[in-house]
Amino acid sequence: MLTKRIIPCLDIKNGRTVKGINFVDLRDAGDPVELAQRYAKEGADELVFLDISATEEERKTLADLVKRVAEKVNIPFTVGGGISSVEDVSVLLYNGADKISINSSAVKNPDLINQLVAKFGSQCIVVAIDAKRINNTWKVHLVGGKVPTEIDLFDWAKEVEDRGAGEILFTSMDHDGTKNGFANEALAQLSETLNIPIIASGGAGNMDHFADTFSKGKADAALAASVFHFKEIEIRDLKNYLLERNIPMRL
Fold first, then answer.
1. What are the structural domains of the chain?
2. Which three-class secondary structure state does DSSP give residue 30?
3. Tens digits of residue pLDDT in 28-61
4. Catalytic residue flag (residue 130)
């Protein structure tokens, strides 16, 4: 059985790690390079760095930060935010990123997924999807959740897979930062529909929430931020807890 992955997420704004609730009310959570080193030592399987204001501010993701992180950590890490071309991806991979994540740019230009897969391979192309439940349907949102669309989450996820993406990072905007648990019904539906790995994001508050998203949500990986940043949950303790519940983990 494939091991499940625990992935701390570092949302970056102005060179600092920040964390909010429902994508707003951001507070400082520390230096991203120091946090990355800490998580690598504590047993994180991967890291995700999201330059959360890059798209809104129409600028590129910070390649210098990527280089500094790559020099300090020995686990895979994904970088996203403001990526809209083959050239953008080349720069980030050259500076040490293992995978890249695209979101708004993929929705605006779906062929970008095909281009990136053709150039770099499926294994390093992650498509992030931010969605919110509106009138009992999940709708995709863009630009850090600020721009709603009429696109259905499940239709878009299937198209993303068909275009060759290697992984989907699904964030429930309704659950983000609430610490009330992940959107397990939607995650389970995604997992049943798709053949590529699904990373669950939004809502982690305690260890049970991680166990639930792996068992009920059928997620392949669970991503969280504030519970790790503010040491509410230690990664090694979490992995031992999940192993005790017969959820396969890499220690």
1. 5-244 (3.20.20.70)
2. strand
3. 667 889 989 999 999 999 999 988 665 555 555 6
4. yes
